[in-house]
Amino acid sequence: MAMTVFQSAKGQAEGSVAAAINMVEGNDLAKDTNCEVSKENPHVLYVPFVPVTSENVDDI
User: Fold this and answer.
1) How many independent structural domains does the chain possess?
2) What Rg value do the Cα atoms of the chain yield, rounded?
3) Contact at 8 Å (CB) between 2 and 21?
4) pTM for this structure?
5) How far apart are CA 23 and CA 1, in angstroms?
6) Structural domain that includes position 50
């Protein structure tokens, strides 16, 4: 295996709540998040992941 990814449940939850608040308040979806809005669909928010390799697997 060359690598896999770690998707933080906490990070996904925080990004989702922030995005929901932004939607209610009429702000940009990704405001005050570390997430990225999809270029294809402005209603999709990408939560960053951490690449896991043999070099950093013990840190995750």
Assistant:
1) 1
2) 14
3) no
4) 0.71
5) 39
6) 4-59
16-20 contact pairs (CB < 8 A, 24+)? 16/45, 19/45
Backbone angles phi, psi at 36, to 5 degrees: -125, 135
> First and final CA of the chain: distance in angstroms?
17
Residue 19 DSSP SS3: helix
Burial class, 15, CB count within 10 angstroms (exposed 0-12 / middle 13-18 / buried 19+) = buried
Query: And the tokens for 47?
Result: 């939560």
- pLDDT digits over 4-58, tens only? 999 989 888 998 899 999 999 999 999 988 899 999 998 888 988 889 988 888 9
> Which amino acid is it at 40?
E
